[in-house]
Design goal:
- The protein is 37% helix and 18% strand.
- The chain is α+β, with helices and mostly antiparallel strands and 152 residues long.
- The protein is globular and about 45 Å long.
């Protein structure tokens, strides 16, 4: 098992449907550690850079329009095999193929509005994290809270 970092983005439809808290809690409940988080509105050039691998595909322009249509929540998770675990929790891109119990299986009806993005490889995770987060926005901390419990 390897300690990995991965990038997640709750898309505008996830924010508009007030699903962010429930989505974030799924990752925390699994045991993954949030090491960076912010809400932004992505501008077109940044969106084009993020989705550059899809340029020229029929869904590219609608995707760019959609992802820039409202705020998103972006975060970085860390944990053992984080990338594959997150991908399983998120579910298949096509909601018809997404298993019940996954985020997309529980909340998504169509591929266009699939509420979440998750890195699909270590290379993608590294690229996406560096695209949206500076080094000083990523935090290393210990999850051991025993030193913080009240002693009275």
């Amino acid at each position: 098992m390897s300690l990995e970092k991965t990038f997640i983005m709750i898309k505008p439809d996830g924010i508009q449907r007030s699903l962010a808290g429930g989505i974030i809690s799924r990752f925390e409940n699994k045991g993954l550690k949030i090491i960076a988080m912010k809400m932004i509105r992505i501008n077109r050039p940044k969106a084009e850079e993020h989705y550059e691998e899809h340029k020229g595909k029929p869904f590219y322009d609608p995707l760019i329009t959609f992802i820039t249509s409202g705020p998103v929540i972006q975060f970085v998770l860390e944990g053992q095999n984080a990338i594959s675990i997150v991908r399983k929790l998120v579910g298949a891109t096509n909601p018809a193929d997404a298993e019940p119990g996954t985020i997309r299986g529980d909340y998504v009806l169509c591929t266009t509005f699939n509420i979440i993005h998750a890195s699909d490889s270590p290379q993608s995770a590294a690229r996406e994290i560096s695209l949206f987060f500076n080094d000083d926005e990523i935090h290393n901390y210990n999850k051991n809270l025993k030193d913080y419990y009240c002693r009275n």
